Amino acid sequence: MDKPVIVALDYADDFECINFLNQFPKNQKLFLKIGLEMFCQFGYPFVKSLRERGYEIFLDLKLHDIPNTVKRTCQMIAKWDVQLLTIHASGGAEMIKAAKAGLAGSNTKLLAVTQLTSLGQTELVNELKVPLKSQDYVTHLAKLAFDNGADGVISSALEVPMIKEVTSQDFLCITPGIRPKTEQAGDQKRVATPSQARSLGSDGIVVGRPITQAKNSLNAYMNIDKEWDK
Hints:
The protein is an alpha/beta fold and about 230 residues long.
């Protein structure tokens, strides 16, 4: 897989989304992320229409259920010709294996989510009763995903070196939380620029509002892609 800039779509209606995409040249190869909210609103027909337009798709559904249910769901998604699909690593070894088995025969890469960015050390200890330090929990779940057939993880750019150290240099690390240099805010945490993510070993970056809400989305995308590609 090439190292893509993945544009996170976050629109209330599909018309607004298509208007955004129409700003780009028809030959512009875009990689688009469809999250749970948009998928629930527009469903598979929307995914199909974007694939027919030539876009590559990251379907960010974060599946988490009993292994047999996840396997059957992945068997359906395997027919959709999407490039990336997410599950929760915390679903355990058997669920991860089941998801990978469900995708057998397709080109869809399976990515595991380790720790949601909304969960900090306090939540891990007090709510989930996880005794590990946050970074140790992340690497533990990444290793669990790696050992059970996942192709990669969703991670902070800052976590990439330690994840690759316990897995493999070929284990994909796709990183959200990316902001271009011009939009860095001093009080934001766990955020990286495209060039920082590249130097840390990220295999792809996910960018939403800095592109989708820019006055000129095409220019914003091209500037981020240039910074990422340096």
